Amino acid sequence: MATNRQLAQLVKQVRNKTVELCQPLLIEDYVIQGIDDVSPPKWHLAHTTWFFETFILLNQLKGYQAFDPLFQYLFNSYYQSLGNPYPRVRRGILSRPTVETVYQYRKYVDDYLISYIDYIPMQQLQTIEPIFMLGLHHEQQHQELLLMDIKYNFSLDPSFPIYHEKNKKSTAKASRPLELIHVEGGTIEIGHRGNNFCFDNELPRYQVIIKPYLFATRLVTNGEYAEFIESEGYQKPNVWLADGWDCIKKNGWEAPLYWKKIDGKWHEFTLNGLQELNLAAPVAHISYYEADAYARWRNLRLPLEVEWEHYATQHPTILRDGNFMEEGLFHPRVSTVTDQQLLGDLWEWTASPYTPYPGYKPMEGALGEYNGKFMSNQFVLRGGCCATPKSHIRPTYRNFFQPDKRWQFSGIRLAGDA
Amino acid sequence: MATNRQLAQLVKQVRNKTVELCQPLLIEDYVIQGIDDVSPPKWHLAHTTWFFETFILLNQLKGYQAFDPLFQYLFNSYYQSLGNPYPRVRRGILSRPTVETVYQYRKYVDDYLISYIDYIPMQQLQTIEPIFMLGLHHEQQHQELLLMDIKYNFSLDPSFPIYHEKNKKSTAKASRPLELIHVEGGTIEIGHRGNNFCFDNELPRYQVIIKPYLFATRLVTNGEYAEFIESEGYQKPNVWLADGWDCIKKNGWEAPLYWKKIDGKWHEFTLNGLQELNLAAPVAHISYYEADAYARWRNLRLPLEVEWEHYATQHPTILRDGNFMEEGLFHPRVSTVTDQQLLGDLWEWTASPYTPYPGYKPMEGALGEYNGKFMSNQFVLRGGCCATPKSHIRPTYRNFFQPDKRWQFSGIRLAGDA
Amino acid sequence: MATNRQLAQLVKQVRNKTVELCQPLLIEDYVIQGIDDVSPPKWHLAHTTWFFETFILLNQLKGYQAFDPLFQYLFNSYYQSLGNPYPRVRRGILSRPTVETVYQYRKYVDDYLISYIDYIPMQQLQTIEPIFMLGLHHEQQHQELLLMDIKYNFSLDPSFPIYHEKNKKSTAKASRPLELIHVEGGTIEIGHRGNNFCFDNELPRYQVIIKPYLFATRLVTNGEYAEFIESEGYQKPNVWLADGWDCIKKNGWEAPLYWKKIDGKWHEFTLNGLQELNLAAPVAHISYYEADAYARWRNLRLPLEVEWEHYATQHPTILRDGNFMEEGLFHPRVSTVTDQQLLGDLWEWTASPYTPYPGYKPMEGALGEYNGKFMSNQFVLRGGCCATPKSHIRPTYRNFFQPDKRWQFSGIRLAGDA
Amino acid sequence: MATNRQLAQLVKQVRNKTVELCQPLLIEDYVIQGIDDVSPPKWHLAHTTWFFETFILLNQLKGYQAFDPLFQYLFNSYYQSLGNPYPRVRRGILSRPTVETVYQYRKYVDDYLISYIDYIPMQQLQTIEPIFMLGLHHEQQHQELLLMDIKYNFSLDPSFPIYHEKNKKSTAKASRPLELIHVEGGTIEIGHRGNNFCFDNELPRYQVIIKPYLFATRLVTNGEYAEFIESEGYQKPNVWLADGWDCIKKNGWEAPLYWKKIDGKWHEFTLNGLQELNLAAPVAHISYYEADAYARWRNLRLPLEVEWEHYATQHPTILRDGNFMEEGLFHPRVSTVTDQQLLGDLWEWTASPYTPYPGYKPMEGALGEYNGKFMSNQFVLRGGCCATPKSHIRPTYRNFFQPDKRWQFSGIRLAGDA
């Protein structure tokens, strides 16, 4: 458990990081919402603040006065038990509060948080700390969302704005060869263990029987995915799920989200601007449907989430030095001989729908809406990505998206029956 | 294995049953399509025939000439590998082929099938019989779909047509009390066993660890569900999945599909016409979202499909005498002291998304599209219903629907953590 | 004014004609609704009957009992003052009442009408006759709608059903040359004159000043329109109204409604089946947007409705022998030296929005909804077509459709500033 | 004709006014687009600049280099002959160019314009001046659009931002009584006369015969419109056009656009913030459908545009001192004894669809798309409003909107048959 001082330190550090990520933005960039799925950056700044204000200050700090009562409505994301939230799809049509006011809101709440932490008695800290930790991990999720959403918004702009000039050029032009490792099956344990923070959806730890399986030693590359496109994979219904086929036909998809063919050459929009496609780098921004179809086309499949977690926890040494947000690349790296890309680089689609673990209990009260209510029509992704804070990820971490979403940094890990 | 004579007998029997189910229809009833999900009855009659024509006659019978080449397009449901099918949503705007022509088509194909069976040599029968069996089970699925679709179409008609005058009145006004049976967990086996017919999605049989669980001794009744409505269950976001909440708000749902309040009293549209709601009978035509919300409101949950199958196979004696299509009620019955309603009455939503069993292999060729490609965004239902042919169902049978669908005969089985 | 006997005769004649037009239909053909705009043939049969039942029998005949009270709801087209009508877009999902019941409905109402006419006293006949006349002209409008709707429904069927085998082949392969007649302007009178039947929207007659204008001596032909297509007229935004451009791009239109290119050759779907396009025949089934764009491309324009009426009433001799419903062609004819195609063949789009004449008064009561409430967002068409009963049309007759509609038999008359 | 100096003066004055109108905006306010109909303020600033750059500098000034070639795409509104414009509905998802860049763009173009004007030789000025004048009137149209769009955007914000604190309070609580003036008919002349600027759609002047008519001496007030609401006017189908009825039911309209009932009292959102409704002030932000229904409910009608122009030109003395943009109220005023509100206050819906005058010729080239291509599905409004620059309006001026639009400052002038 953290001391008051450590907690205060952590709060400052994480909260400041969010602000730091917004440094390259101009005021106008904070306002826009390119599609319903993304949120304006200023909304993220305010909503993460609202989270602390709502679940800590208003709940715990006697006499605390909300910065602006209207914000309880505007910056509630989806907590129906706190009242009908402002509609998500209309976040991009509000010019007020201004960016400046949102930063004042952050300062106001941060100041209260820090002084509040200061005087929490030891015994109370024990019950309050988990909510702080939840708020910080929540903030880290929105740090990644900020990068995802900025990337999406910028990609719609025909001037292709650059969020970040890459300083360390990733010049590797060849990835390690793709091997499929044979892993023995058996009765294994899955789920979070120990006292460190985890989300409710990683619990309770439980036993499961798995069969022997094959597991790829790296992510699928752009070059490999380009073969799928060239072999007319997007025109072959037999490798697609029925919903996937409908999805690509309805949306006219014929390549990953950010690929653009310019003068006959594939390019890719990145947070470093529009780049020529590096065939050795992992294919990114792929829907579940595309990941699944690609695997099927290779006569393989996506891993189950229990296989993924089993493999990852069996290989602790390869989990170090992943390509996370802190690297400042904001783009997946070419795999090297020592890097299996398990943590970092890209989230990896698993073949597992997002369901509760046996005996799952959501948190009490409004926080019970954090995770549990999304357990339908989504698939689990594992491993974090180049936009995920390093301290945020674990091998038991479960991310989830609808199978047609692809603005997250998602990639393909192949697996198979042994 | 069946003899040629037995097979011919079976084919006639099943094929005639489909025609028999259409006897109450007037010609106009065969043509309409009330919503995209349902198909006109004449389409079902033709499509099941197309299945035999395509996968048996055209494939196996040398020199066979299709009844009408256009039917290969019109009555292909979703087999993309056989060419782009006629759009599902436009089935109700075709007046031709007429009902009479469709019956001629059935006779033409049936005559060929019967004479073909006659002369299949023993050794060939072994490889052909499975396709016949698949065609017959496919036909049985469409028998149930016919009843579902006729019910839906008729429900839209303000004159509330009666498909079938109930002959044996189900007069029971009280159901057995609802008990929750405590069942031990452990390592169990799931999936089809033996040589009888099953679909590919019931295989391969595999081992799974389950925890102790609670399992209800009957389906939830209309009266119990009415309590949920009266307690404003449809206005309480905290018992709903996020997608479920969106679904009921978007569609304005405030009760099961066929409930209608007339002069302050709940009525229910049935294949026997509009009836006053029997509070003791099982609640029917419920979406997954509603079933899940109801269970959550009772502080329980829906069973996993492995729990359902485990419970059902542990209680073989209670599987007899279910309320199936052959009963001719086409409506669920009030549970009796000896009837746990496991098979028949209503399909029971499970909390399990529809996914492949470990090691699942779809069939070869176009038939590979039969089941596998639907394994996303759907939930498994178990147990069959009052519109399912008795010989069609098994405890290992996996039905599946999107969680917002409710025109199937679906109900609620409660379960819980022990 | 008609005698009772004459009126009874007329009622029988017109009502029977509607039934006669349905003779080629099979029962299934009566049920379908290909798009929202069209209605199932059985709906037309019932609605025209409802019109007489509602506005004559229920209003005038003491003690008359409605055939079925539900029909007051089902077959009310758009008379809001008679209660909320059954939704237009859902006419095609009702199998009941059956075709047989609808014919019984017609007989029931016709029998009452005929016996009622028999005993109307002379003085009452004067006030009742106009409503009978309105009912009969209404019935004639639906005769044309029946042909339009059957054509549209059949066109969606890949088997291209034939409504009517053409008996007299229209073999002409060349039309008269297109001349533009110079007509003097001045102060003219427009609108219906005399005691014969007309709709309220043709009144009151009024004075208007027109400028000299040019008026084409025949309709635009398929061949001439094909030149527009070949010159990439559908890709040239500058000849289109802004709404027209949006319309053709959104709908992907690149040719008139029923044109289909088969093996590089234009064909046209007609009530006589799919035919090779006769380049000399008038181009048909064209939206206002297409007609307007074509005229603009020719550096001409469409006529104003006052120009059309002025020209037509100046040329009474050319109004005879038009190609109407009675010809039984149900398709426009090639123009001949003596035929300027003013009445019959195709409705002619005018450049005039559908607005009331100065001093216009709608009918009293529910019948006031007949015409007046549609006076926005529509354009006037003049002249009748090959599906219009001959006794239904007059030079002052104003038809009207939204500018994006093209399932009516519409064509292009060119005009210009002199 | 203007001298070079006068023209330069005028250009500076009008261009500066646009910038002045944006002074109250914060940067974020420039970016948003509340609905498809409105545009972000920064788009207006850029588009009006693009107009001068495209039609003057790029066309006339040899060697001129576009500020940014991408702007030719981004800020083209609807000129298809200049290439496919950036989609209107996506204007609000672009953060770049920034507001600062847009102001630089304005300065860059203004500087070129002013120096260009300086050296235009007299004889060339004659041909160039009309394009300058068009650009300035275009700019004035966008000044009004800016105010309309800011008002709409702000109205969606639950904090109800204030664009402008009213300085001169309009305290009048009673309007002059509504009289209907009887005006004689006859043959009159309509359309622009003289050498001053007008749009192409005001020409050519032509003769038309009108009947005697009644014309109201002021606009309909909020109080009078509230009577319509209270008498359940929005629930009475018989006073509505069919399209109007569909429109209000589909959109759930039950009051003018900016009316909000708060604690049982009507309020109105204005550019001066949310205000209690002044019953004596004119009802504003009304669709054609509502204006038409209101008039019908009063047994009157809307004026024809020829009646409006006839009345206005007959009463030149009442045209002075209207309530225009320059007043700085940005809201209609209560009518006074001497003020018939013909020019200024609110645009007045006429019953006339927007069509070309007899002999109308659009401008040559791309500028031909300015007005003519919108002549379908719109109605003419006359008179200007409190957001219209005074020098922009004339009695012959024709504004036009689709009948379901109401974000423009529109009101109701009653008229009738004499």
Can you describe this structure?
Four copies of one chain form a homotetramer. Chain A has 418 residues and is of the alpha+beta class. Chain A has two domains: 4-155; 180-417, paralog of FGE (formylglycine-generating enzyme) (Alpha-Beta Complex), CATH 3.90.1580. In chain A, 33% of the residues lie in helices and 12% in strands. In chain A, the strands form four sheets. Chain A has a four-stranded mixed β-sheet. A three-stranded antiparallel β-sheet of chain A has the order 1-4-12, covered by helices on one side. In chain A, strand 6 (265-270) and strand 7 form a beta hairpin. Chain A is globular, with a radius of gyration of 22 Å. Chain A starts with a helix and ends with a strand. The model of chain A has no long low-confidence stretch (mean pLDDT 95). At the A-B interface, strand 3, helix 7 and strand 8 of A face strand 3, helix 7 and strand 8 of B.
Question: What attributes does this structure have?
Answer:
homotetramer; about 425 residues; alpha+beta; paralog of FGE (formylglycine-generating enzyme); 2 domains; four-stranded mixed β-sheet; three-stranded antiparallel β-sheet; 9 helices; globular
